[in-house]
Amino acid sequence: MMERSLPNRCLLCQQTCLQGRGLCDVCLADGEPGPLCLGCSKPLPAPVPWRCGSCLGKKRWRPLVCAYPYHHPLGYLAGAIKIQRRMSLLSPLCDALAQRLEGLWQLGALPRPDALLAVPMHRRKLVQRGFNHSALIAVALGERLHLPVLNERVIKVRPTRDQHGLNGAERRRNLRGCFQVIPGARMHNLALVDDVVTTGTTFASLAATLRRDGHSVSQYWALASALNTVS
Ligand SMILES: [Zn+2]
Ligand SMILES: [Zn+2]
């Protein structure tokens, strides 16, 4: 069963919080990590130029926006939506990512995308789990940021192995040909959405599939990123 709402206690400090919100405002404010690298989500000492030293050296890159680094108390909780079905985390974590995005747009660090598209889940997995966490996150972000959500335009046509423990080449092979774009209007300036980005292979693979079919992806969004800690 999907969790409806945890007793209205904050998952971090156990203090009372609003019904349906798994985190209290104090923990959310205390946990705000400040500026993060738009390449790998590593915390930055100062915002400009929005990328850390190692990401600035990369020629081919797409901005990645995350609410938290994964190795951060709130970043770690991003994985609990999928794994522990903690639906009460969806709202506060999506609020945090939406606020970060609005801040970046205001500062001109990043353009607004035209639409959002979540990483799809194979239907067998969807039946097992009962929900696609990434699709729920995309819908929540679309509502908050007033952007269309085009989740139905891509499907996962074959199940894939858990990416955990696979090296880069194995991950790419695992995902090869697993996504399929439903024919229709051209999609431009998309932001791809997932819960946690670990190596970025899933985003890159989905973006490559979309590009092959004439669509364009301009950025990646996730609640948390482990990119700067994964080699
Ligand atoms: Zn709290
Ligand atoms: Zn970086």
UniProtKB/TrEMBL annotation:
Transmembrane segments: none
Domain of life of the organism encoding this protein: Bacteria
InterPro entries linked: ComF/GntX_DNA_util-trans, PRTase-like, PRTase_dom
Gene3D superfamilies: 3.40.50.2020
Family: Belongs to the ComF/GntX family.
Name of the protein described by the UniProt record: Competence protein ComF
Lineage, top ranks: Bacteria, Pseudomonadati, Pseudomonadota, Gammaproteobacteria, Alteromonadales
